[in-house]
């Protein structure tokens, strides 16, 4: 067998399904040809390893950037969770039954927008549910007064806008950096 045969075997070894064909040709090789083939395979292996190392070296700075992006994504997820909690706490400080009130407000928001929901919440909060405490003819329980104070300090629109922005940025960042490996 000639060195052309060795080249053919090497070409088969580079193909995804060529191993079986290359193995069938091995018994026909002489000892010197097997030694030469072994040398060629080792040289090919070394070239492949060197190429892989060069690619890894080029990727290393980008991997660090991806890790930083993933860290940013985790921090952003924490901020989004905190904003969600603050929204719920706001409703809990204002309404006797915060869950249905928040649901009613979010449904109104879906139909009319965040600004309209914030305005309705500020102008007539009872439309979304019963406020905490009691009030009658200008008299208020301390609980009702705390609820009204909480309402005055509740920046619904700001929280909703920040939450929506955080969620959008999080989705974009997730698309670019992907999940954390390992």
Can you tell me about this structure?
The chain is mainly alpha-helical. It has one domain. It has helices at about 5-15, 20-25, 30-95, 100-110, 115-125, 140-155, 155-175; strands at about 135, 140. The chain has a two-stranded antiparallel ribbon. A hairpin with a 2-residue loop joins strand 1 (about 135) and strand 2. Helix 3 packs across helix 6 (about 140-155). It is rod-shaped and about 110 Å long.
Brief overview:
With 182 residues, this protein is mainly alpha-helical. The chain is 78% helix and 2% strand. The chain has one domain (3-177).
Structural descriptors:
182 residues; mainly alpha; two-stranded antiparallel sheet; 7 helices; 78% helix
Number of strands: 2
Average the pLDDT over all residues and give the rounded result: 84
The low-confidence runs, each spanning 5 or more residues with pLDDT under 50, are none
Helix vs. strand class: mainly alpha
Strand content: under 5%
Instruction: State the helix count.
Output: 7
What secondary-structure arrangement, pairings included, does this model have?
Blueprint: H1 3-14, H2 19-25, H3 31-94, H4 98-112, H5 114-123, E1 135-136, E2 139-140, H6 142-153, H7 156-177
Helix pairs in contact: 1-2, 1-3, 3-4, 3-6, 3-7, 4-5, 5-7
